[in-house]
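**Paired protein data**
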Amino acid sequence: MKRVVWILWILFFPLLVRAAGGEDVVIENASLRLVIGADGAARSLVHKATGEECLATEVRTPICAITQYRPYDNENFLIYPAKPRVFPANRVERRGDLLYVEFEDTYDIAVIRLDIRDAYVGFSLERVDYRIEAYGVKRQTEIDEFALLQLPVRPRGHFGEWLNVVWDERTAVNLLGTHPGTRIDAFPKAGETTLYAGLDARVGLFGPGAALVVSSREDLLPAIAQIEQDYDLPRGVESRRDPNYRCSYYSLRNVTPENIDAHIEYARRGGFRTMVVYYVDFARSCGHYGWRDEYPNGMEDLRYITDRIRAAGMIPGLHFHYSKVGVNDPYINNGHPDTRMNAVCELVLAEPAGAADTVLVVEGNTQGLRREEGRRLLHLGDELISYTDFTTRPPYLLTGCRRGLHNSQPAAHAAGSRARLLDVDDWPLFVRVDQNTDIQREIAVRLGHIYAEAGFRFVYFDGAEDVPMPYWYNVSRSQSVVYDALQPAPLFAEGALKSHFGWHILSRGNAFDIFPPEYIRPAMKRYTLRGAARNAEDFTAVDFGWVNYLAPGDATIGMQPDMYEYIYSKALAWDAPVSLVGNLEELRRHPRTEDNLRVMERWERAKLEDAFTPREKEMLKDPDREFFLFENPKGRFELCACRQLTPDNESGVRAFLFRRGAKSCILYWHTSGEATLRLPLSGSRPSLTDDRGVRISFRREGDHYLLPAAGRAILELDLSEAEAERLFLEAIRPLNKPVEPAK
């Protein structure tokens, strides 16, 4: 009897399961096994190689969800208030490579296609079916947002927010967008991080998708490389593996065919293997990129510069703005302003306006108007107009209007005409373009022509933040349009702002804006070093620049060798490039240029030769520790921890203390010229060399040693650190004075 009961149980259990809500859905490939409950919640995600459970299984998270910005169903909006409402999945069924997902309180059935490969599983929304009830007032309702995949993942020590990956040394879980239009996000909570891939109706529900990777740490990038190949994405993994990825670059400033060789010589002495041309040196404006007067032969002159860079054994790169146009560009100032500029708000003329009127009567939401100087630019008909002020209560007036700006003509405008407030950049030399028009592609084609004709091989996407909302989409969308126009594809790229899809494009993260010399260390600790640590979570390097080159002056001590030691030592620790702003006149004027360039070259060579162990690199990452890198006459590197003796804002002699065996050593130099130090006799003859170990002569006068203070020198003393510090600071006190730096 028991045997009969058991057989009956086996036969009828599947039917009972279906009657109770259906079977669990299992999705698996060579590396992962994902189980989704029939009730629509993720139950398990196992990394097959280790057997590890990757989900926080105690958390019930619907695998999908629909968001409506208000309830759209006729009966639902009679029940619920007018605010966004999320309808979670409550039933999932698999039929071959399709998932059929149903939702609470809606009549939608989402059909999701699975793309199951050995290294990943792809998800995309194929269609949405809709059931119509036999009662009530029914129609198919809108979907504003669709959560394509939501997974509550256990924490693993590392979280790469940009790449959207949770990982440790054993296992990585990555939910990756396969299209710029996939909204990728993550929501960390105590005990879990929900990885999210979603779709937005304003961008597109059908087409964008996501890929799920569960792998070892070592296999993560190969899996992403396979996704990039299968979905024809920019090759971000390949770029990060390029042998020139870590190379620092010399950013040319005010370069012309006449001075390119002088720039190249400084770059060579600094150990640079790549150089960047900033478009403002050869182009009058961004948008049409017409040639400046300094380039009378146009492309021939630019190609001469890039040819000279290549002949010097360096790789040329191009730094450009691309998502906006200059107010001096024909898109704006040709008398017929292009209508494809982005606008931040629109007003309607409430009364007719004459061509000479300085007050406009309008209606609409004046709260959207801007007050910043240079950003108050209206496009009305074929005319550009600025205003001085506006009222915020009826009647709504724009006052102090200046008519016919940027070569447009003042004109009369009828009541009902629409005035658009243009999206002028906060650096008010540019107007941002409307990404929903084809103007971005026009600009990309021009940049692609310049890039290919001049032979550039990598790029910097500057002004990446200068796009309209939604930022998660338009930042990468605009970059993708330009990237696709660059042939051959850049070896690597950097940019001013990153969104998820941009991981494939901006393979070297970003540079930071210039910090004054006196604030290099605190600024780098606050920004660059934190950025490097965060980018490392995303398997990406940050650019340890832009670093200025500034000679000493009345308001600054200028960029000094120790500052470059600090920057380059931290860059080496993170295997990252440094970018130097090549100010030719400052390089010529700075008395310590030879020392500065030698510091750069030495650290750059040590980085590219992998001269230090992982343990030493970890030591170098410490933001509060200072290190100098020396090279002995036999060519061997010597890494020395040191301590600063003189203040950052003091000009004169700059000094650092370190130990070498039993000796107290002081590395010093004069920040802006030359002097002689009078060091009291200490009972033993000091030793003095330059930073390459070459002896420097000095003399004795009475009870003092007279030491030269110019380029970098190392003073060795048979004294305790405290005594050496006391004697040296006493010797330099008459020479030093504080400088009030400009912030």
Summary: Residues 1-20 have pLDDT under 50 and may be disordered. Residues 2-19 form the longest helix (18 residues). Residues 13 and 34 are 23 Å apart (CA to CA).
